[in-house]
Design a protein that fits this description.
Number of helices: 14
Shape: flat
Organism: Paenibacillus aquistagni
Number of strands: 11
Catalytic activity: ATP + protein L-histidine = ADP + protein N-phospho-L-histidine
Structural class: alpha+beta
InterPro entries: BphY/WalK/GraS-like, HATPase_C_sf, HATPase_dom, His_kinase_dom, HisK_dim/P_dom, HisK_dim/P_sf, Sig_transdc_His_kin-like_C
CATH architecture of the largest domain: 2-Layer Sandwich
Protein name: histidine kinase
GO molecular function: ATP binding; phosphoprotein phosphatase activity; phosphorelay sensor kinase activity
CATH superfamily of the largest domain: Histidine kinase-like ATPase, C-terminal domain
Helix content: 55-70%
Number of domains: 3
């Protein structure tokens, strides 16, 4: 018969509860503080990078009109318009940085400690005309509504996680304080070692029954924190990468409309709307993708003309390729390419592949996108004259978070998740994706999709004919 523990007085139970709660809260505070510190630092660097990109984009939108603005009043109007459009105060100085031509900055606003200033040289026809200074408030981030929403969502989720963790610790510690007697010193020493070492090392389960319960609870808590941290990191990385591709297409269309390259027609507005709707669906799916490797995808298969789908995506990237002076060519299939696929998923796959080709192809290069129908399968290829991939990297190019050129910045090199997600989506369609490349000469990405022998449209026609 098991020996019963002696009854604990109320003061002893309270003392044990206070001790356990203190140790647990120290652990939570350490993990949460470290988590917030790393996140705040990464977010601050990302905001600075985004501010620099925003400044170059602002100058790009008015550079052509600056060439024809000879009067100071005309230039002032241009800068005022750009400052209002981008919600950014600016200053425009001469080449010597001393002559202040235009000042749209409030001195009181500039004195804020959270202000981040960027300087962009204004070069017109190869001649330095001056410098454009832009000022961003890193705390408000009003220049990027999407960044504000993302930060608010993070704050809400972190608070919810903290509250849930505190409640869980409160319940666990209350039960342990009622059960524990002589094993409290050993348990406290083990829990304190976690705080001192600042490493979530699993504790070895040993000792009495009560001590084993406490150690198991602490290990479970640490595992929960590790999983939540891993999910959060992967979610942030996937969102950053996956949202960039459709956003680039939207910005390209909008820039083309603003610059007069594309007319403001229902067709172009519809294309932008399609990309925005795809962004919304991507945000919903990213959480599922980040929960585990090899996530199961729910496909909404439809009868799709793959050739037309590839051509639409190709046309969406034309503006981006022209900006880099890249010869972008589309080679249509000689036979119909009707497939049962999820059109949104296919757009996600092909957009990733084409975007990577444009990103890694130098100015003046050549990219060819096309389709082939052979041996009961449809092949989509994207061939570029970019930097190429070394033979030892070809087997790992589809691994998540893997980048062949680790010296690239986050902005130009990406986070290495696009191709891994594309591979998972292709395999969900019972297809395969691979790469053929030679370092210094370029790469060719192939996507093979099995074509069903009888399409839905053909089945309907035969049914009507038989009837």
């Amino acid at each position: 018969m098991r020996r019963r523990l002696p009854s604990l007085t109320l003061s002893t139970q309270a003392w044990l509860l206070v001790l356990l709660m203190s140790l647990s809260f120290v652990l939570i505070a350490s993990l949460y503080t470290g988590f917030r510190y790393v996140w705040d630092r990464e977010l601050h660097q990302y905001k600075q990078q985004l501010a620099k990109e925003q400044s170059y984009h602002l100058l790009y939108t008015i550079r052509e009109r600056l060439k024809h603005a000879t009067e100071q009043a005309e230039r002032l109007a241009l800068f005022q318009e750009a400052s209002q459009h981008f919600s950014v105060p600016i200053q425009y100085t001469g080449p010597n940085r001393e002559d202040l031509y235009i000042n749209l900055l409030d001195p009181q606003w500039q004195a804020r400690p959270s202000i981040y200033a960027t300087e962009v040289p204004v070069v017109i026809d190869g001649q330095l005309e001056g410098y454009l200074m832009t000022y961003y408030d890193m705390e408000q981030a009003s220049y990027s509504p999407a960044l504000q929403v993302l930060e608010q969502q993070y704050q809400l989720r972190s608070k919810q996680l903290l509250i849930a963790s505190i409640l869980a610790v409160l319940l666990v510690c209350t039960g342990l304080a009622w059960r524990i007697s002589r094993s409290i010193r050993t348990t406290a020493r083990l829990a304190e070692s976690i705080v001192i070492d600042n490493r979530p090392i699993p504790l070895k389960v040993h000792g009495t029954e009560e001590l084993k319960i406490m150690i198991t609870a602490i290990n479970t808590l640490m595992n929960q924190f590790e999983r939540h941290e891993a999910w959060r990191n992967q979610l942030m990385q996937d969102l950053t990468h996956e949202l960039r591709t459709p956003l680039t297409a939207v910005l390209s269309h909008l820039d083309a409309i603003i610059d007069g390259i594309y007319p403001l027609t229902t067709e172009h507005i519809q294309r932008i709307l399609v990309d925005i709707e795809r962004l919304y669906r991507l945000v919903e799916d990213m959480e599922k993708l980040s929960e585990a490797e090899g996530a199961q995808f729910e496909l909404n298969k439809q009868e799709v003309n793959l050739s037309r789908l590839v051509q639409n995506i190709y046309e969406g990237f034309l503006f981006l390729s022209r900006d880099k002076e890249i010869q972008f060519e589309f080679v249509p299939s000689r036979t119909p390419c009707m497939l049962l696929v999820d059109p949104d998923r296919m757009m996600q796959i092909l957009s990733n592949v084409m975007y990577n080709a444009i990103k890694y192809t130098p100015r003046g290069g050549h990219i060819q996108v096309g389709l082939l129908h052979q041996n009961g399968s449809i092949y989509v290829f994207c061939k570029d004259t970019g930097m190429g991939i070394a033979a030892e990297d070809l087997t790992r190019v589809f691994d998540r978070f893997y980048r062949t050129d680790k010296s690239r910045s986050r902005d130009s090199g990406g986070l290495g998740v696009g191709l891994s997600i594309a591979k998972a989506l292709v395999e969900a369609h019972q297809g395969e994706i691979w790469c053929e490349s030679k370092l210094g000469e370029g790469s060719t990405f192939w996507i093979r999709l099995p074509s069903h022998p009888l399409s839905i449209l053909e089945q309907n026609r035969q049914s009507l004919t038989a009837g």
